[in-house]
Design goal:
Length: 335
């Protein structure tokens, strides 16, 4: 099996020759390969070079086309401030009053913001690895796009004070995500994964989560599949035994989990879904390689006898992660 075959088999709950491994490394690869983070964030050729070199040196099974979760909102009008060595800061929101929602215009991925650079990176990477290593387009989910279009506090007040404006903003954000995902597939991504940290059920009221958010997440998954993605991953933070089934109901093929839900519980709750995770993201910066190997071995052992598991970090690997910890994770899966 090559890497793409291995990941595809796991997604479809089929046997694999070994556990596929995907550390969620993106901007971290700039420092790892001796480049500047802003060059990675702002240039498609640099992004591709960083991700390809990291994969060649480390040997993980799939690469993520990802800059940061503000990329889509920036393309839709939010202004960012770039400071070298860190992810960009939100400088000016596109929506500062509810009437601004109606003025929003859908970005064109071929022209708007940094989307063209990400598409360029995707095309370069697919041409380089062809169908040997997975190329995954990672898009931001609708709640997080909305939270980057307007101040998160205003967004939460909007839920209660102007639910029509909240729904309109969430629908707009969904459309942004769907259009960008379709462009990534056209550019060469093998599949799409959706990450939506602001959609966490730990922050949203349960009725809003289930009645407003989850139906839109389901609609987004359907749209992404209609665009040609043969499988779709979904990553929601803070899922528990009562909300993991909600995430599964979106129709996503892969449920990407953080460390807050034990793998053993997840395997029993969603036995028919591929699960990815759930190594603590901050452990890549704080732990030793020995501890990292131990955590990864435990996860792999828990998955024995079950098809459909991908060893992955439970979130994007931080910029200050230790290369030896990422290498330890990958070596454990490959040994």
């Amino acid at each position: 099996m090559n890497s793409l075959d291995r990941v595809s088999a796991a997604i479809h709950m089929q046997p694999v020759d070994r556990t596929p491994v995907i550390p969620l490394i993106a901007g971290w690869t700039a420092g790892f390969t001796g480049r500047k983070l802003n060059d990675y964030l702002l240039g498609g050729d640099c992004m591709a070079a960083c991700l390809l070199e990291a994969q060649e040196r480390l040997g993980h099974d799939a690469m993520l086309i990802f800059a940061d979760i503000a990329l889509e909102a920036e393309a839709a009008g939010t202004k960012l401030e770039y400071v070298e060595g860190q992810h960009p800061n939100l400088a000016e929101y596109a929506v500062n009053a509810t009437e601004d929602v109606a003025r929003l215009r859908l970005p064109d991925p071929q022209e708007s913001g940094r989307m063209p650079g990400a598409l360029e990176a995707c095309s370069i990477m697919r041409q380089s690895v062809r169908d040997e290593v997975g190329v995954v387009g990672l898009v931001t989910g609708p709640m997080s796009i909305a939270a980057n279009l307007t101040f998160i506090g205003d967004l939460l007040y909007m839920i209660a004070d102007d639910p029509a404006a909240f729904r309109a903003l969430l629908d707009f954000a969904l459309e942004v995500s769907a259009v960008y995902a379709a462009s990534l597939i056209t550019a060469g991504a093998h599949c799409i994964s959706i990450a939506d940290p602001a959609g966490t059920p730990t922050a949203l009221p349960k009725d809003i989560f289930r009645e407003e958010y989850i139906p839109r997440a389901h609609r987004l998954v359907e749209r992404v599949k209609e665009s040609g993605s043969p499988a779709v991953g979904f990553f929601l933070w803070g899922l528990g035994p009562d909300t993991l089934p909600d995430c599964a109901s979106t129709g996503a093929d892969v449920l990407h989990l953080d460390h807050q839900i034990p793998l053993k519980n997840a395997f029993s709750i969603v036995p028919d879904k591929c699960v990815a995770g759930n190594i603590k993201a901050y452990a890549f910066a704080n732990d030793s390689p020995a501890l990292m190997k131990s955590a990864c071995r435990e996860a792999i052992e828990l998955s024995q006898g079950r098809n459909g598991y991908i060893l992955a970090s439970g979130g994007e690997v931080p910029l200050d992660a230790k290369a030896e910890n990422i290498a330890a994770m990958i070596e454990t899966a490959r040994s």
